[in-house]
Structures are given as structure tokens and as C-alpha cells.
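My main concern about presentation is that the manuscript never shows what a single data entry looks like. For the editor and my fellow referees, an illustration may be useful. For illustration, here is how one protein appears when written out as sequence plus C-alpha cells:

***
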Amino acid sequence: MSSHLTMIREVEKHANETVKMGCWLHNKRSSGKIQFLQLRDGSGYIQGVVVKSEVSTEVWEAAVKLTQESSLYVTGTVREDTRSKGGYELNVTGIEIIQITEEYPITPKEHGVDYLMDHRHLWIRAPRQRAILVVRAQIIRAIQQFFDERGFQLVDPPILTPSSCEGTTNLFATKYFDQDAYLTQSGQLYMEAAAMALGRVYSFGPTFRAEKSKTRRHLIEFWMIEPEMAFVTHEESLVIQEQFVSHIVQSVLHNCRKELEVLERDVTKLESITAPFPRISYDEAAQFLQANGHEFAWGEDFGAPHETAIAASYDKPVFITNYPTEIKAFYMKPDPNRAEVVLCADMIAPEGYGEIIGGSQRIDDPELMEQRFAEHELSKEAYQWYLDLRKYGTVPHSGFGLGLERTVAWICGLDHVRETIAFPRLLYRLYP
């Protein structure tokens, strides 16, 4: 036996070998002369079997002492076992206790959400929470792989910004020495500058919204992936978006089957998520809502019930394109054939998960951008650099933003985004 520790996820490489693991006791049961230890090490779970007649008194007594979340080194032989979930179990021959845990706060009984959130630092050890965080990590890997393989460069926009082009009402204010500064709600404007230098770029970082929102779709601090692409039209961007989301879903299906099982996710609903995705215009969406009993006037934005109703007609994400200019951001390019709508789209996830991507072609005309700044009363002083992008070598360009936590919630089939990140920041929660 080598001296290094074996991870549970690697046991299939060590069948019939003696290994040593660093573990926590997740649970245990006993049938008198045999103790069954449910062990976890972060990489997975395995059952350790301690047979009284086959081990020393010290090892047996050590197993008896173990309580939920006690930490230990365990030595044993890996045996193939088709009945166990992982396909293997450990015939335990040695136990070295690191710590006996007393009165672990999260017991197998039911706890309320507030209690669990107060103990989030421990709750993430639970099998379901672990599965969500493993899927999140796989989604992140898939995102980076998708862009890296297509020649995009990763660029990190600033988190502290001097002001916001979309207004500062939903931003967290802070002091930057003797100036006012804000935590970013999007890196997009900076990514446009990066695209003019590097062609195709993406950012991956935290963003902050000071909205007093308590819905199941909103976090105060969340992660955004924001690609920006020079010489790319709105139509070309839509194709990239649907390929991107297909890639993420298929990557999770391929790499996280065990975790999706723990989450009891209906994978048949994910298996159909392959490009291309259906598209409807804002006009068609408005007519659909009106025809199906929703009070909705052209020019309004869609709320969660509207998005859910529209998505219910599809088993894939659906693009809603060409929203009214009035309700979209100042930088979106008007449709050349119809100035009252812009070249944009929101991607609505199936099963009631709402918008996961918002994107558009950006205005590249310097005069129109100046006009938009005036109409929206935006500070030229704070964002002269953004106007410079249209002044010095302007080109058609498009981009979009994907919200990581909503994507995790949809793929995992979760009711609330609070479980999609290790330590969520919610309206009334800054602890732990």
C-alpha cells in the first residue's frame, strides 16, 4: 500500500487493493457484529464495512465511537459490490480517528430553510448540496471550454466602477478614497472595449444588484458570463448562444450523471436540449399572451408569469427577439427596417426558469450613440471612453450575458437560486 491517500472517486482503479482514505462519517448503521460506515471525502461516497470478527478490538471500538461528521483516516480493501450505489465498498481493516464530532447541528431530520441557511457552511456537506455544487463546477468548466476552443480570450472587467450607464439606483455605492464608486452590475461596456482589441472575448465574474427583490430567481451577488464579439451580427450571435447552451447541458449530462440522480432530475428533459432553438418575436409573444388570457399591452416588459407561459409551449429554450426600443438598454442597435424595435433577444429556459441569456447587437454608429446618451441623460464625462469605441474604428459587434445561477437552477431542477452558489447573498442574508 502506498502512503498517499486515495480519493473515493478513484476507487475503481484500486479494486482488490488496500487503500487509505481521509474521510468524514456521513452516517452509520450496525447489525451487531457488522458496522456499516457511510463515508465521504468530498469527491464521493463509499460504504465501509467493519466486521467484528475480522478486526482488532481497537478498530471495532473506534468504529463504535464514530458520530455524524467525525473525521478519520480509514484503511481497507476495495471490493466490487454491484448492490452499492458507487459499485464498490471498503472492507475496513484500520481506523485512525482525527476528531469525534459532538452534537452536529444538521441531523437527518427535517430542518427549516432559515435554519439550514444559518448553517450553510455545514449544509453544503449534504449529498444534495454537494451534487449542486459539483454540477455548478462542471457548468463552469463547460463554459470555459466552449469559448477557449473557439478562440475567445478571457478578459476581466473591473468590479469597482465610477458610475453606471444604466443608472445607479440598483447599484451598491462605496467610497473609492475621495470619489464615489459602485460595485458593477455588468462588465459588458468594458468587454466591448476588449473586443475592439482582441476580436472575441468573454468575461466571467461576480456582479451585484442592489434590488430589494425576494423572488426565487434573484440573488444580490451572482456570476455572469459576458461574451462580446467584433464583426458579429445579431443573427450570428443567436447561433453562438444556442450552441453554447447546448454544449453546457450536454457536458453536464455526460459528466454528472450521479449528481443528477441525487437531485432526482428528469434527464429526459435535458437530453432534448440541442441547437437550434425555437424563436418568436416580441410581437408574436405579446399576441400569444393576449390570446391566452393574459392582460398584456405592446410596449410592456415580460414578467415571470409571462415568460413561464411562453416557455410552456416549448421543450427547449426559446428566443424572444426584437423587443421595443423603449424598454431595452440604450446601447442596443435598432432594427434597420423598424426603428421602434431593437436587434436583441432574451433566451427563456423551459420549465418556468425564466430568462437565462440577454443579448443584442450593439449600436456602432457614433452619431446615434451620442443621441442615445443625450436621450438617457448619461454622463459623457464618466463614459467618454465608451463613446471613443465608436469614434476610433467602429465595427458591427454583438454580445450577450448568461446568468450562471439561473442556469444552474434550471439544469439541476431547483426551486430557488439560493442553493446554486455555496454562500448566497440574499436580501436579508449576509451570513455566513
User: Anything to note?
Assistant: The two ends are 41 Å apart (CA to CA). The CA atoms of residues 53 and 297 lie 77 Å apart. The longest strand covers residues 18-30. The mean pLDDT is 96.
